[in-house]
Amino acid sequence: MKIFYGVQGTGNGHITRARVMAKELAAAGFDVTYQFTGRPSDQFFDMQVFNGYQHKEGLTFNTGKGQVNYIKSVFEAKPITFIKDVKGLDLSSYDLVISDFEPVTAWAARMQKVKVLGIGHQYAFEHDIPRTGSDPIAELVMKNFAPANTGVGLHWHHFGQPILPPIIETPDFPGEIKKNTIVVYLPFENQQEVIKHLCPFENFHFHLYSPVPVVSKYAHITSHPLSREGFKKDVYDCAGIISNAGFELASEALQLGKKILAKPLHSQMEQISNAAALKQLGYGHTMNDMQPDIIEEWLHHNHAVHITYPNIARVIVDWMKEGMPKMDKEFTEQVWEGVDVLQIEI
Predict the structure, then answer these.
(1) At 80, is the pLDDT very low, low, confident or very high (cuts 50, 70, 90)?
(2) How far is CA 169 from CA 19, 52, 131, 234, 311, in A?
(3) What's the burial of 340, exposed, middle or buried (CB within 10 Å: 0-12/13-18/19+)?
(4) Tens digits of per-residue pLDDT, 127-148?
(5) Which of 230, 234, 242, 232 is nearest to 201 (CA)?
(6) Is the N end or the C end of the chain the one with fewer CB atoms within 10 Å?
(7) b/e per residue 164-195 (b: at least 16 CB within 10 A)
(8) pTM
(9) How far apart are CA 44 and CA 36, in angstroms?
(10) Domains of the chain
């Protein structure tokens, strides 16, 4: 089977998921072409697993000061370029298109009547899952940004719906952690403001990752540029993460048994809903803004949740090899039987 795979590159979560899928698709012998959009081409890193890939500008969202600005997103969009890219993408030689919430690929496939398989967290919102912070604009974006014929939704829990667990790498559980070490990834926040709120907690060591590293004058706050290997190592070693309420990083933290403090982007329905789900499930703590009292309480909290998820990328690839039969509740229930949730002390 020949596949065209489009990945939204605005955040690193989609790319991380695609890396895991790429390994399983290659192992299964599928011929895959990858396309990435959502950020400038020179801002992608550690892309070797994709064996060369296409890049288009695509669509993205304007973010700043911890929130999404939909009005600026519309004004900064380049509709003529987007339409040109959609019309210029020839999918006639492909048997299937996969979209990880990537709009150029999804809309090109729809225009050319090529079947689209949507894989990602966003497609879980087609079902009855925790949902808050919604508004007509958010609903419109979620439904039409990257439409698919078949959507495979991913979430931390099934909520009684035919959705699957997260697609993540499954490393060994850390045998030892650095109890006072915290990874901070808040790329949509003002980084100096983040440092200001963390500086009073001198008994903890913070590893702060951001797209544009800032200078930290505090010995207990180390600022890092984005680095896949460095970030993975620090997440593996740390006791917990402070991050926005993106899906993929929280999934990795749960798989590794790290405590979570999530600050959702304002005006971003998906992240607000993710934070609500973390709280509802008892999987993490949340804060609406950088609130020192909540940060302090969470830092001294020694409880976490360790979830062992099966290899969902392999489950999906095997399902594709079987002709993609209807992914009903019975199928997904069998998958969820392989999920193990454990409360731990750190």
Answers:
(1) confident
(2) 9, 22, 26, 16, 8
(3) exposed
(4) 999 988 777 777 787 788 899 9
(5) 242
(6) N
(7) bbbbbeeeeebeebeeebbbbbbbbbebeebb
(8) 0.90
(9) 9
(10) 2-168+310-338 (3.40.50.2000), 178-308 (3.40.50.2000)
